[in-house]
Amino acid sequence: MPWRSNSIHSIELDLVLDVLARRHGYDFRGYARASLKRRVSGLAHKLGCATIAELVPRILYDDALLPEVLAGLSVPVTEMFRDPQVFKGIRDQIAPVLATYPRINIWQAGCATGEEVYSLAILLAEAGLLSKTQIYATDINDMALAKAEEGIFPVKTIEKYSENYLKAGGTKALASYFSLGYGYAKIDSAIKDRISFAHHNLVSDGVFCEVNLVVCRNVLIYFDRHLQDRVLGLFDSTLSRSGFLCLGTKENVAFTPAAARFAPVDAPLRLYKKLAESP
Amino acid sequence: MSAPQPPHAPIQAVVIGCSAGGLEVLRMILPALPDDFPVPIMVVAHVGAASGGYLEDAIRRDCKMPVVEAEERQPVTPGIIHVAPPDYHLMVEADHTFSVSTDPKVHNARPSIDVLLISAAEAWGSGLAAVLLTGANADGADGMAAVKAAGGVCLVQDPATAFASEMPTAAIARGAVDRILVPGRFAPVLAALCNPSRTAELP
């Protein structure tokens, strides 16, 4: 797509976002602009539009296109055990506290195609906690959710993730959690059965249960400060007393008022604990 | 009769992109910049996902300017060298703060030079100077074209002096270049571009 002046590009983007919000109820106007612009440009290119503005009638009149549009705007990219030291941190610093609870509820917000939530479930299984844990994995992107729920990954990627798994403190072979065949690896039902996948939009949906840990990595980087603040407030409401929050390692909540409701457990790993309500 | 070309507007920000062999060239350019360099510098180098902090340390060793890892939501700050964090794309928003993403790799790279250059071209328009150095793929060429289209200044390493010539050659082939320089020339040219009172020094 050819480069256009800042103002034209911005007007086109605003038009697309306006149609999505007013016609379909998906409000991306609180997303950080630079990456959103890239994604919308990419979507226009993929759908054969010469300009971003050409997306407007397509999105306005073709309802069947919506899942593909949402998938294009949320571009799920995850890996298993990405940033292995974070998973090691959860294992060493959070799991021992969770172990003292009779039942554990966990919410992964923005689970994309599931690699991360399965990593978390494997970690909990090795800590002996999975059998008393319920994980809710949510995303705005139904195409990604369907893929996550399948739990089928190319064998090659499992080999690639094995190194991360071991660095995260994994005690077995990563492949032992999958059944292998035809070049694909399917996650064991013992792992998958503890996870419920559901559609949830952090922009507009509310709290749906009380949880002891929220994992939301590399989602807030796509939000502007206002939306980031709303979402951190949502996490505060959904977390139980002294509940834990895990964000992405490059995420910066320093400019967000709601961040004051959390204290760092391990700041470099972005592990936080909910502070007690002030009296 | 063509009008004399007006002097270029003062540069407000510099982006430097490099890949294979880039560290050596960065260590020729960045330490040669004065400690009162008046604008922000952003550096994207293709490094491995797990190489946290290695690049900053290697650059910082001889630099007069402070070197920090670029952090999301932080302002792009004059006089500081901001280095893109490994395994994230780095972008600049319209309010000149950084944002990062884990979107798919571009030209098999994350951070991608194209991604930063395209967002920086939008953020600074003609106030941006872009530098593309040695590298073994075509990342950066689209970005340089965006900088050029927005009226910015494009400086490319002379491919004959590059460890890997593909990256500078791709930008030159796109016509996204104002000057082709040997490594030793970048620092004085950048200093002159960013400080109009020294324009006379422009070689």
From TrEMBL, chain A:
Name of the protein described by the UniProt record: Chemotaxis protein CheR
Matches recorded under SMART domains: MeTrc
Any one GO MF annotation of this record: S-adenosylmethionine-dependent methyltransferase activity
Record domain CheR-type methyltransferase: where: 12-253
